[in-house]
């Protein structure tokens, strides 16, 4: 394991332990999240639904100078780490969200930060849910855009989806890091 993969798993857990596992999860970033937003595209906010079709949170997508910031708030999760990824199809049909397709991967790479042939454009670090089942996180994906008409756009024809998985992402196993069932989904259109 490299330093990045260790920090993706250990750092959020250490913060939770040091803070006594407070009732809210700590933010996890994929990249430098302190960039100013571009004014060329309004942020997109989507409801995250669970397998029963009930709203369990929101995801906000904001275009930055170098990528897309994703702000996630979700409830009803088991405490701990959850894989979370952008998937290739903007369709979230409960209960299993298989309609969202595979990970968003316009460059044809393999899954995960630790994969020498990776990573998918839609790969994110794990989402951390606190003891009360709530997760709040901010991610930045520098591999995607909200600008239409380019191959790495989240707003491609048919849209894309943000999917939360039941288990942690191991950051290297194809196709989804052994992250288990899909338990939450938000359409990005």
UniProtKB/TrEMBL annotation:
Its EC number is 1.15.1.1. Belongs to the Cu-Zn superoxide dismutase family. Its cofactor is Zn(2+); Cu cation. Keywords: Copper, Metal-binding, Oxidoreductase, Zinc. GO terms for molecular function: copper ion binding; superoxide dismutase activity. It is an enzyme of class 1 (oxidoreductase). The keyword Chloroplast does not apply. Binds 1 zinc ion per subunit. This is Superoxide dismutase [Cu-Zn]. InterPro entries: SOD-like_Cu/Zn_dom_sf, SOD_Cu/Zn_/chaperone, SOD_Cu/Zn_BS, SOD_Cu_Zn_dom. Residues 166-189 are annotated as: Disordered. It catalyses: 2 superoxide + 2 H(+) = H2O2 + O2. It comes from the Bacteria. PANTHER family: SUPEROXIDE DISMUTASE CU-ZN -RELATED.
């Amino acid at each position: 394991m490299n330093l990045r993969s260790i920090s993706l798993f250990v750092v959020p857990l250490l913060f939770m332990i040091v803070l006594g596992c407070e009732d809210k999860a700590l933010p996890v970033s994929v990249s430098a999240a302190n960039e100013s937003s571009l004014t060329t595209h309004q942020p997109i906010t989507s409801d995250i639904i669970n397998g029963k079709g009930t709203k369990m949170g929101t995801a906000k997508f904001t275009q930055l100078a170098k990528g897309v910031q994703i702000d996630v708030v979700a409830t009803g999760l088991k405490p701990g780490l959850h894989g979370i990824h952008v998937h290739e199809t903007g369709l979230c049909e409960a209960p299993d969200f298989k309609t969202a397709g595979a990970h968003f991967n316009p460059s044809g790479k393999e899954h995960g930060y630790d994969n020498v042939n990776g990573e998918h454009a839609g790969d994110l670090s794990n989402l951390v849910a606190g003891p009360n089942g709530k997760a709040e996180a901010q991610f930045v994906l520098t591999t995607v855009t909200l600008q239409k008409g380019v191959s790495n756009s989240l707003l491609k024809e048919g849209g894309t989806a943000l999917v939360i998985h039941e288990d942690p992402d191991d950051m290297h196993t194809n196709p989804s890091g052994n992250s288990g069932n899909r338990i939450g989904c938000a359409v990005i259109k």
